[in-house]
Amino acid sequence: MNGADLIAHILKKEGIEVLPAFPHSDLIDSAAKVGIRPIIVRQERQALHIVDGYVRMTGGRKLACSTVQNGPGSENAYGAVAQCYGDNVPVLHIPGGYDTNTQGTAPYFSASRNMQNITKSAETVVRGERIPQMLQSAFAQLRSGRPGPVALEVPTDIFTADVDETLLDDYRPQRRSAPVADAAETRELVAMMLAAKTPVIVAGQGILYGEAWDELLALAELTQTPVMTTLNGKSAFPESHPLSLGCAACSRPDPVVEFLNRADLILGLGTSFTHSDYITPFPTRGRTFAQLTNSEADVSKDYPVDYGVIGDAKPSIAAMVAEVVSRLGEHGRKGEDSVASAVAASYATFMEKWAPILASDEVPVTPYRVIADVMNTVDRSKTVVTHDAGSPRDQMTAFYQSLVPHGYMGWGKTTQLGLGLGLMQGAKLARPDWDCINLMGDAAIGMVGMDIETGVRNRIGTMSVILKNSIMGGYIDHHPTAADLYGIHELSGDYADMAKALGAYAERITDPADVSAALKRGLAQNAEGVPAVIEVITSDETRMAKNLPDGV
Ligand SMILES: Cc1ncc(C[n+]2csc(CCOP(=O)(O)OP(=O)(O)O)c2C)c(N)n1
Ligand SMILES: [Mg+2]
Question: What pTM value is reported for the model?
C-alpha cells in the first residue's frame, strides 16, 4: 500500500463517494480502486466548484474531496478554494505537492503556504505515517465548528511511498459535534424576543448546516416573528410562509426593507451578520442586535451586537422553542395574525409593481419572465436552483421563492462568475433525485462553459439557463469611456450551438411563450443524464428590487 492508497481507504471510511479531479494525481487511481468515483473536469477550478455544491447540498452531512496535480493544477485551483473560504464551505482539497527532494528552492508552488489565508487549515504531509492523524484532524475541522475548506498537500513522493497498511486500523472517522448554547443564554435570547415590540429574525446558512429549519419554523410561528434569510441562508425558511419577508441580499423584496425599518430587535440565527455588497445592510441606530452563531469570530464582526451567543443552530433554537413554550404555552402566539397580515400587505404592494414584469410578454424577453417561468415550471419540492454573479443573482434572489430547505443555493460573499454550473453539478451528484438548475449570464458561462462537457461525459444531468443579453449588465456605468470607445461591456457567442457541440441538449429561445416548454424538454433530458442548456435571448434589464432600509 502506498500513501495515495492509504488516503483513499481513509476517504472511504469517511464516507466519501466522489472525487472531482484533474490529473495527474496518484489519488485518482487509488480512489477508483476503493470505489470512489473520480470525475475529471476541464479545469481545476471546476473540481472545487463541484465539491462546493455537493457539500452545500448535503449541509456538510456528506463530504467530498478534490485532487489536482502539484504546480499548475494547484495554482489553478486557488481561486475556487478562496470561494469556499469566502462562503464558509467545508471542502476537503488534496492537491499534489512537489517532491520533498526538490522543495525549498524556487520556483515551487506550495499549496500549504499559499492557502493559509483561504482555508481553515492548510498543511503538508511530510511522512506517509502522518497521513491518518492529519486526515483525522482535517475531518474533525470539516465536520464541526465554523465551516471552511481544509487543504492537505501531499508531495508526489509521499503519494507513492510505501506505508504500513495497519495504519488504516488506527483511523477513527470523525463525527459532527453540535454544541448547545448555554441554557441561561438561550433563555435571555427568548426574553429579548418576547420583550421586543417589532423583532425580526435573520436566518443564515447555519440553519441549513445545522438542519435547524423545523426549529426555526416553530420559533417563528410560536412567537409570530417575521423571518428574512441571508443570501447564503436562502431556503432555510419557506418563502411562501405568511411570516416570510424574503431574502435580504443585494436585491430584496420591499417587506425586508419595511420590517427592518420598523424593527426594534434584529435577531440573527445561524448567521455571521456579514456586511458585504451582496447582502442587505441593516440599520443599527435604535436597534438591539442579538446573534446566535457557532463561531466567536463572527460575533460583533460587522455589526454592533448587543448579545452574542455561541451554539449550534439546531439544539440551541430547540432550547429557545422549549423556553417559549414554557413561557407562553404550547400554542404561543399562534392564532394572532397581525404580523402575518402586515407582511401580506407589504408583499401585495410590492408585487403590484413586479407581478406584471414577472409575467411580461416583451421581446427581447426580460430575465424576470424567465425566472418566474422556472419557478412555475419546476417541482419546487425537489428542485434546487442557483444564480450566478452579475444581474442574474440580483434578479433572482428577490423573486424566486424557495419552498423547501436546499431548494435554493444562495452564495456570494465572494462572487466568482461561473460558480453556479459547478454548484449544480455537485448538487446533482449529491441528490440525483432532484432537478438542479443554474441561471447564468454571458460572462459567467465564459468562465466555465467547457465544463458543460464534464456534465455530458459524466452523465450529470443539470440544466443551465443562459440569460443572454450580450453584455455585462451594468458595466457601461463602471467604464463609460471604454464602453463608448471600445465596447468593452459587449460579449458575443452562440451558447446553444456551443452546448450542442459539446454533447448537451440545447435550445435557443427568443419568444417568452416558449420558455416553459423548453424548460420541460430540458428537464426530460436531465432525467436521462443529459445536461441541458436553454439559451434565452434577453433584454438589457435594468429594473432591480433594490430599495434600501432607512439610515444605512
Ligand atoms: C471571476 C470574476 N471576475 C469578475 C467579476 C465581476 N463581475 C461581476 S458580474 C460581471 C459581469 C456579468 O455579466 P453577465 O454574466 O453577462 O451577466 P449580466 O449581468 O449581463 O446578466 C463581472 C465582470 C466576478 N464576479 N467574478
Ligand atoms: Mg450578460
Answer: 0.98
